[in-house]
Write a structure and sequence with these properties.
Blueprint (H helix, E strand, L loop, with lengths): L2 H9 L13 E7 L18 H8 L2 E3 L2 E2 L5 H10 L30 H7 L3 E7 L17 E5 L18 E2 L2 E2 L6 H15 L5 E6 L11 H4 L8 H26 L6 E7 L5 H4 L15 H4 L3 E4 L7 E3 L3 E2 L3 H9 L15 H4 L12 E5 L4 E6 L2 E6 L5 E4 L15 H15 L17
Helix pairs in contact: 2-7, 5-7
């Protein structure tokens, strides 16, 4: 018997009395280091992604979709806390320090799975965690009833237990994974849905694909055999594997007749690392780690076929919007005394909102203040190190090629004022970047 079925029998008996009409299920799917232009619905021609394309076709494609940070762990922290991660010091990737209680998503933050549990949901996480290695940060202790995956930031796709200190785990028990890791994550996500199909569930499916190391089985490499560049071909095969895993999940939803009552988000945790995997962020400037569009603008889909009409949404949205949107859909309550930084997207995506998101400012900061960016309307200010602030009009210059700072002093000053005011609400990073020694 599958371990998830056993878990359900012993852990969730009390939840199985859900009443009709049942609340919508919520699924958040996060890719890792995905290139902006590397999916069919984003215009890609050489990497087949039929399942993600189908999700986009029946959902809303957000053409100005962003994440709150240009690399991994901070984005995930902000997503699960519903707040700019710089508000609580999670601004750098945490080192693998299983004996350090201070390095991880701070325990005083109320996370989305905790709120969903309070709203009557079974909660599950599958895949990459990367939010702290000490046991106090384990997903099962942060609101997730059920977990399958790996806790660190990087993993082999075949020899999963090569890093003996971070084996694959089912909840807190180390397990052997006898298949390609991305396939296993798709299988476990579908199994979670199967086991909990009779009750409202919240699932966080966080792939480590297509993050390095570039590893893929022949069945996926064969699909992209016409790509001549070897590095790009391996990366493309990994994207195919992720697409298949998403397909397993969406097929299970359809089989169980849950599609129309399931709200699904899909996006990448940051922009693609162009020179590392040869992924493509076309037509954006920059890559993972940078605050140009190529580092923070990502493929972004919201699908809820029973509620949202398919289409395109051009106003800026952010991964910080997932928390309030999911809680509103669940009929839950936001944590008391906590100001969330996102909004409930559903009224906006349905065209029923009384306000617009077009002029909502979105902010970014990296390195404790080394670089900044703010977008408001179509205008974006980028501050890189000590170089003069640059200003771009994304409505006509999505590639951030023409700096308008010299001819728009008033607009530049207004954005600088908003950015500086936001920065004053933040705290210093709680730990240094991975390539820097920790402060004493």
């Amino acid at each position: 018997m599958h371990w998830r079925i056993l878990l359900a029998l012993f852990s969730f008996v009390g939840v199985a009395t859900a009443v009709e009409p049942r609340k919508p299920n919520v699924i958040v799917v996060v890719a890792d280091d995905l290139g902006y232009a590397d999916l069919g619905f984003q215009g890609c021609k050489d990497i087949p992604t039929p399942h993600l394309d189908a999700l986009a076709k029946c959902g809303v494609v957000c053409s100005s979709g962003y994440v709150s940070h240009p690399f991994c762990s901070p984005t995930r922290a902000g997503l699960l806390a519903g707040r700019y991660q710089q508000r609580f010091g999670h601004e750098n990737n945490p080192k693998w320090l299983p004996n350090d209680k201070e390095v991880g998503l701070p325990l005083d933050q109320v996370l989305l799975p905790e709120v969903m549990k309070n709203a009557g949901y079974v909660t599950g996480a599958v895949g990459k965690w990367h939010l702290g290695a000490h046991p106090v940060y384990h997903p099962n202790r942060r609101g997730f009833d059920d977990y399958f995956g790996l806790l660190g930031g990087g993993h082999q796709y075949f020899d999963h237990n090569q890093f003996k200190t971070d084996p694959a785990k089912a909840n807190e028990t180390p397990v052997e994974v006898g298949e390609y890791l991305t396939d296993a994550l798709g299988r476990e996500a579908a199994a979670f849905v199967t086991v909990h199909s009779k009750v409202p569930f919240f699932l966080y499916l966080a792939f480590n694909a297509p993050h390095t190391p570039l590893q893929a089985p022949d069945k996926y490499l064969d699909r992209v055999k016409d790509i001549k560049d070897e590095k790009l071909r391996k990366y493309a095969a990994m994207v195919c594997g992720m697409d298949d895993a998403v397909g397993k999940l969406t097929a299970k939803l359809a089989e169980l007749k849950l599609t129309e009552n399931t709200l699904v988000f899909f996006f990448s945790d940051n922009g693609g690392p162009v020179g590392v995997t040869n992924c493509r962020n076309t037509p954006l400037r920059g890559a993972k780690g940078q605050l140009y569009e190529g580092g923070v603008r990502v493929p972004f889909v919201v699908s809820w076929p029973g509620t949202l009409n398919p289409g395109k949404f051009d106003e800026p949205v952010t991964s910080l919007d997932v928390f309030p949107t999911a809680v509103a859909a669940a009929g839950g309550e936001a944590p008391k005394g906590v100001t969330l930084d996102g909004v409930n997207l559903i009224p906006h995506l349905k065209g029923e909102a009384k306000t617009t998101l077009a002029d909502r400012p979105l902010f970014w900061r990296t390195g404790g203040g080394e670089s900044f960016a703010v977008r408001k309307g179509a205008l974006k200010l980028v501050r890189v190190g000590k170089t003069p602030d640059a200003l771009y009009d994304l409505s006509v210059d999505i590639g951030e090629k023409t700096d308008l700072a010299g001819t728009n002093a008033g607009t530049l000053a207004a954005l600088q004022k908003e950015l500086d005011a936001w920065n004053k609400t933040l705290v210093e990073p709680k730990w240094e970047a991975l390539n820097a020694p920790r402060k004493k």
